[in-house]
């Protein structure tokens, strides 16, 4: 009954991509369900108006999320191509020679 099996955990990157996929799929399914019931897509202006003063907070949160996704994508591409994003500039040429 005691089995010595190791369970490999998913990486943060894998879980993040699954979360993005689930979020996008839920949004798409919600839009499809709304169109099936009412025959028209969501009205973004009506939805934002219904949030009142909190609309800008929601827009800011969504922009922040998309910014994090874009940043993680850029970092992933940079690592794939071997580009160092945090390498400080060389100080050899900046120092005066006596």
Structural class: mainly alpha
Report the uncertain regions.
Answer: none
Estimated helix fraction: 55-70%
Shape: flat
Biggest sheet: strands, sense, closure? Answer: none
Strand content: under 5%
* Counted beta strands: 0
Query: Please, how many domains?
Result: 2
Helix-strand sequence: HHH
How many helices? The count is 3
Alpha carbon gap, first and last residue? 76 Å
Mean pLDDT over the full residue set: 82
Cα Rg: 23 Å
Brief characterization of the structure:
With 98 residues, the protein is mainly α. It is built from three helices and no strands. It folds into two domains: 13-42; 44-85.
Note down, in words, how this protein is organized.
This protein has 98 residues and is an all-alpha fold. The protein has two domains: 30 residues; 42 residues. It contains three helices and no strands. The chain is flat and about 70 Å long. The chain starts with 11 loop residues before the first helix and ends in an 18-residue tail after the last helix.
């Amino acid at each position: 009954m005691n089995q010595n099996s190791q369970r490999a955990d998913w990486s943060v990157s894998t879980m993040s991509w699954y979360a993005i996929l689930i979020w996008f799929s839920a949004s798409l399914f919600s839009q499809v369900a709304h169109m099936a019931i009412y025959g028209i897509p969501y009205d973004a202006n009506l939805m934002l108006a219904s949030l009142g003063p909190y609309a800008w907070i929601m827009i800011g949160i969504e922009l922040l999320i998309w910014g994090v996704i874009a940043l993680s994508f850029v970092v992933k591409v940079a690592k794939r191509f071997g580009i160092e994003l945090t390498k400080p500039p060389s100080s050899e040429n900046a120092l005066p020679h006596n």
